[in-house]
């Protein structure tokens, strides 16, 4: 209840926005890495460049957006206020950003110091965020699937980063661990325990409310996060102690649960009452189709050993899950969150006397659509590169650069709009000095 | 069980559907129909704000002693939505597709983040603090909201 008293205190604009602006920079680096390493990157999922690329997208792009969005939405959806959000955002961002760069550098150079520093920075950044978000959510009753999902996603991030630190220290030569086994547990916690549980809890709210669809079935929304987390814990234990048959069974159950989320989202979204699909809805649809495809391909690989002999198979699953699923849904959400935050903060600053530009004037729809097509093309080229790296690696890298330069430009144009209107408001207030500002 | 949360959340969904009817009319270029539908939507929104500001919020404030807390924030957001409604009405009169679409999108996101705060935090608190008064309060709220011609959800 104490949290609610101040739930007007939306975090300052700079708190989430620094994460949103940094995200495309990591995807730009990923594009450059593709061009620099060339087709060799796609030789296997274990090449140093493939590992660096995976982390630039997951711990770079995706985690930046998720952290920024969490800091912004916790007060809105759960009434859970983070104390000193700007300070927290500054510290977490300052630790996470160089942490991911050092991690990528570690993979590419095998330099032990890079791995050690990356583990230290990513570990402290995640610990700070988890402490603050956990403290804010601790006081909130788990009264609905969104709040439960947000709470259950936090241990997922903790496990992912904890295991990641362990792996980084092992790669730095500090001690020995079963690398392959720990890597698959680290990946599963990052993909399922953190990303999917967080995404689902957001989807249960965002899809029906913003796309005007029927709600998700209550039985599904109520049980999803808890069941998935339980399956993940059991699978980690089974995999850890080497009960292969049980591990495969539990992995299948996890994949089917994630696939069910994708199918239900597509089904619910197809009943949207909105007059036309905008970029955000297209991005959601693409993300769910890619997540579904990735789950189906992984299920097939679990049961058809013939497929796992092909190096393309895991690469294809990875491209679908990371670029098709994660990146797509996050860019789609950014196109709603960023223009709305610009409008909201300008509206509050203008105090009703200087009107803020509407969302579609913050980032022009035409620019958003162009960026979306560039992203679609980059994804198609990346999928092709998984099969024919010699032909498609360079076009895919180039297109990834274009799509994310375009995303960065769109976000910067939102920032320019914000700054320009701040000046207008300041001038307006100076001529009418009674305004309180904020 | 009838709760304030369920009752008021249902009215949020009714307003959503009325808003979508305007959007569909605008998308098909039926400006006269869009203005009629917008009238219904605006009336439903005003009734909802009025029910909260004149009935629900004062009861919550009296019962909790929180006069400058969440209800004050909600009133502030109502004022912002009233401004957006006025701007959307003006865009409809001008038959300006881009302006209406942009304002309506902003209003939709504003409405939904406002609804989230109410449905997840404020209404459950009202249910908790106004347990004894729910039976009498719901018909009163119903009367306030009945002015608008809602689409059943």
Instruction: Please mark out the parts of chain B with pLDDT under 50 across 5 or more consecutive residues, or reply none.
Output: none
Fraction in helix of chain A: over 70%
Count helical runs of chain A: 14
CATH uppermost class of chain B: Mainly Alpha
Give helix % range of chain B: over 70%
What does the model show?
The complex is a heterodimer of chains A (438) and B (153). Chain A is built from 14 helices and no strands. Chain A is an all-alpha fold. Chain A has a domain at 1-140. Chain B has 153 residues and is mainly alpha-helical. In chain B, 84% of the residues lie in helices and 0% in strands. Chain B has helices at 4-27, 31-64, 70-94, 97-129, 134-145. In chain B, α1 runs antiparallel to α2, α2 (31-64) runs antiparallel to α3 (70-94) and α3 (70-94) runs antiparallel to α4 (97-129). The mean pLDDT of chain B is 91. Chains A and B meet through α2, α6, α11 and α12 of A and α1, α3 and α4 of B.
